[in-house]
Each structure stands twice: as structure tokens, then as C-alpha cells.
């Protein structure tokens, strides 16, 4: 039985073992402020600025990382209780936590960033995730 892995997509440059803190602590722009207008509006209505959002799928984290000029995907260990993401329609995919410690960094190439940005314009989250997973193939670790 393997432990669940969690990922966070955000700006590049967060060092290994550092804590990812919520926007209410850092004052930085939240990933809910990136992407198409319809997604940003929906996210603002339900996402909390005092939480860090993590996902069980690396491809989903890559979508959020691609909203930054230079993005990275981070494998993280969430701190505090995991709360289901109220904006996610896929059970077990996305969660909120108080903060998360970086345990591994996956820098994104410009090609990956562009591919993810393109996928952000798919009509729904499931289609976005399926598109990325099918194009990742054996790249997923």
C-alpha cells in the first residue's frame, strides 16, 4: 500500500523543505488569480486566502503552475487537516490545508508551460486533467 502523494503548482523558486504558506500570510498572488476569467471568478467565490491548495495529481498541479511566468510543480507534505476543495467536482483530487512543506521540486519546461496553458482553455477540469495525463504518458513519476 503506497502513501498518497500531494502536489502544489505555483511560482518557481520555492526551495526544498521550505513551507508553502497561504496568500494571507505571504501577500503573494494566489493561483486563483490566474487562468481564464470564468475559472478565476468561480475560484474567488469559494477559495480561501488562508489556505494552501494541494492535489493528488501532478498534472493538475501543473495547470496551476502554468499560470505563473515561471512555474514549478512541488511534491508536498500538507500540514494540518486536509479539507476537500469546494471548487473541485472530482472527489479526492483537490484539498486545502494550512500550509505544505516542499519535499520535491519538478521544474517545468517552456513546452510544458505552453501545453498546460493551452489545456486551461478546455471546457471543464476533467477534460483538462485527461488531456494532460494522456500527453504525460511515462513522464509521470
What does this structure look like?
The structure is a single chain. This protein has a single domain, classed as ADP-ribosylation fold (Alpha-Beta Barrel), CATH 3.20.170.40. It is an alpha+beta fold. The strands form two sheets. A four-stranded antiparallel β-sheet has the order 1-4-7-2. A three-stranded antiparallel β-sheet has the order 3-6-5. The two termini are 17 Å apart. α3 crosses α4. The model has no long low-confidence stretch (mean pLDDT 84). It is globular and about 30 Å long. It is built from five helices and seven strands; from the N terminus they run ββααβαββββαα.
- By CATH, the topology is ADP-ribosylation fold
How would you sum up the global shape?
globular
Number of helices, counting only DSSP H or I runs of 4 residues or more: 5
Class from secondary-structure proportions: alpha+beta
Report on the biggest sheet: 4 strands, antiparallel
Estimated share of beta-strand residues? 25-35%
Spell out the CATH superfamily: Rifampin ADP-ribosyltransferase domain
Number of domains: 1
Mean pLDDT: 84
* CATH structural class: Alpha Beta
Helix content: 25-40%
Total DSSP E strands: 7
Strand order of the main beta sheet, please? 1-4-7-2
Element-level helix/strand string: EEHHEHEEEEHH
| Cα distance spanning the termini | 17 Å
CATH architecture: Alpha-Beta Barrel
> What Rg do the Cα atoms give?
14 Å
What multimeric state do the chains show?
single chain
Given as residue ranges, the uncertain stretches (5+ residues, pLDDT < 50) are: none
